[in-house]
Design goal:
Oligomer: single chain
Radius of gyration: 15 Å
Shape: elongated
Order of helices and strands: HHHH
Distance between the termini: 52 Å
Helix content: over 70%
Number of helices: 4
Number of strands: 0
Amino acid sequence: MDSVTFLGYIASLLTTVSFLPQLIRILMGGSTKDISRNMYIVFVIGVVLWFLYGCLKQDFPIILANVFTFIFTSVILFYKLREDSQNK
């Protein structure tokens, strides 16, 4: 593995893992009231576009990172939308 690919894997690992504390906090019963619904909607769309870009470029670090980031952020967004609808 060359150093550029290694750098890609490290960057994708760090940016993907950064969502785990938020996800764990929400799953453990925390509230989503302090996170932005619109930010997560835009972010999830961006992650899907990055995934498609990675597929088109056949860039595995981009593909892998965005699959996991999509899962994490979609779960966060689901809980946010659910909490917002319950509070109406």
